[in-house]
Structures
1.
Amino acid sequence: MAKLTDEEPCPTGAADPGRWIWLSDEGLQLPRPSALDRDFSDVLARRNSVPGHTSITQQELSTILWHSCLIRERRPSPGPLRGWESRSAPSAGGLHEIEILCLPLDYSLPISWYDPLRHRLIPTAKEGGSDDYRQVIADLCGSTAGITLQFVADWLRLSTVYANASSLLWRDAGALLTTVCLVAEAANVASTPLGRESFIRGLMPSDEPERWRLCGGVHLCGRKQ
């Protein structure tokens, strides 16, 4: 995490290596997302971090991922950036370097990466540490059901484009976390922010472990009755 003595982040002028692209043609297409019709002032008034102990449906997961990560516009950028995206949450340079790994606690779904380009889940072929995270989430927030959205940043991309990029990484993670939590509340799903940084063994999306950094996430589950 950035310290007060860190230098300000600044563009490096280096060539952008480009966004990680999911090459698989396979995946679980998520259902059409539901509209969010809650009043925003009501969402702000009622949002809290109290976890529940029931799972969420694919429909609820689809709705939260869609509205939190919707790619509204994509276009090439001038200069060293290979692409710019506009989404619900802001991101440095329009990079949106944070990918989402979906970790179900109750075996309702396989461990999967979310592909926002085609609104689908891509099961990871690796199962390393598949039980470790369940115990970690239980220890952190006491929940034994639901789905954790683990944020995984493409550090190679962010640090290539920006010098002293740590503060940008955590700024982007905080913006995405806030957006997911507000959308989850609008969908009447409990959301608990997590600051977890420990690596999940064997689940990174490529054979370049140094490329990726974990930067917190959100646990989603049913409302506590």
2.
Amino acid sequence: MVEEKKEKEFVKAQEMQLNEVELKVNRQNDEQVDKIIFHMSHMDRKIDITWKPKISKDSFEGGFKVNKIIPMERGLLPKKLVEMATQCSEKGHCKVKVNYHVWNTEQDGSPVTYRFITSGKTFDEWEVLDKGTEQEKIE
């Protein structure tokens, strides 16, 4: 009997350490975010999770309602993402509980693993476990 290899799976509620949030912006328009890379650590392994955030824009052309899916702009990034990035830059990392897809495949004969999220809905389910510490004002 041949063992069947699972190529795609969904990881739910995995606790990880987020070390950095990297934005890859569009070459022609640096307000458009083409890709977000979450640089993570889990059990002494470095893991990158990618997300290509998109938004839906409606317009009317020639009497038709036209719906376009376009890259998200910097000003529309989720508040939680900005908080995570800020906490990582101030503290060096933050603990998060994440959901993501894993795809194991081959590229040029070598095994490759891709980790990614496909929608804002999946990102909305992410949870920051250690909130930033409140700083006292010294007067």
3.
Amino acid sequence: MLISTIRDEIITEVGGDTSDTGLATNVLQFINSALRRFPLWTRSRFLYTTKSGTLTSGQYSLTLPSGIVNEREVYFITEGNRLRIDKAPSNDYFNDAFNSTATGKPNFYRIIGQTVEFDRTADATYTIYFECSQEKDGLEATDTWTGDTTTVEVLKDGAKYYYYSDYVEDDEKGKQKLALFKNGLDELDSKYMATELGSHIDEE
């Protein structure tokens, strides 16, 4: 489904005119504004991707790849094996484990700002992979929506919240759409936990 189709559905459903180019531009912005909330408020498979960075031999840090909101797993591959790097449970734990004079494969990591630090200096150059939820922004009308139809309806509720609260200043309808938007994001998160985590729920 094209973003333009979603945009036009929103315009029609709020009683607007799809030939109104000014309104169309605003609704596209509302779609992007709503979409920015998805990685912060919910987990859903369409938000996840894998990004990578290079940990150079003799270094113990790298720049965090762009667009990462939350990492689900960090790992590298060596001799055909995928080896997980654990997130340090606290800064104190990481500081106790950190040894810049030791060399070897990374065991723990922490993220400070846009820097990923590891517990030891790399003994070789590693490609570090980040399974993560990613920023969603900058959609154009000609782009294709990558989620399923249930996520389309949640997105539309989010865009309508911005339409009613910011564009026509109808606070009551804005509150209604915000409630629907948040409920939809909660449902997507519940669906993620059921399908990805099964009966064991891990807080991320």
4.
Amino acid sequence: MDTSAQLCIWDFDGVLSDSLTECLSVVVLAAFRHANPDISIDSRALVEIYNPEKVHELDRWMRPLRPFVATGQDYLWQYFHKDKFDRRFTSMIEYQECYRSIYNQSLDQTYKRLFYDSRKMLIKLMGKKYMSLFTTYQGAVHALRMSMGRHRSFVCTARDRQALEMILARHRIEIPRDRIYSQDFCADEENRGRSKAEQILEILDYHGGRQQPFVIVEDQVKAPAQVAADCPNMKVVFAAYGYGLASDWEDAGLKGMVQVNSPADLIFEIF
């Protein structure tokens, strides 16, 4: 095992790309499938189901909720329970109180299957046009490319691996699958419910241990806060241009945290 290079763990959504348009496009398709389970959908039918105006309308009320999204199904909790979530939340604690008041595990699993199956369907039906749903942060992608050349670099994301690989391939970036921890895979093994924090600890356990110095690049504080007690030499780069709330980062009080306000500035913190 090579421990000569620094270990660096990258988030994707909000750090490397503004992917909210893609996520809300999945929501539009998922909502249609939920309401019309017996209707077969092909590329022609998708034209009627999905259009940018629907996504723009969702964006107006769901973008303020993006800081509280951890998994794909969170979007569907928000969408199908608009009466609960159509309001301004000032912190993750406030949001979680609302979320817990209606949560049940069975429905969460239903939403999870619906969201991620709809994403796979969207990728298949849109073909090359699917990539137009992302706005990639060029400075962040450049920093990731350099990180891969100089450090032991991993991507740890709530996004599914297929979509992640497609997006990175567009920028001629290939990450070995044993360096990808996603919603559906932990390296080359199926992810059977391990959280992002658990995945981060697994990466460390397999590649040098939890006591080693390492860097994690994130826009949301939840996972770094959960692993902080086990990782005394963690440096956290808070991508403030992403979806996270600065107030939640301040409340977490993480040691070794630096804030980056522009994707172009990431390179100075990683190198």
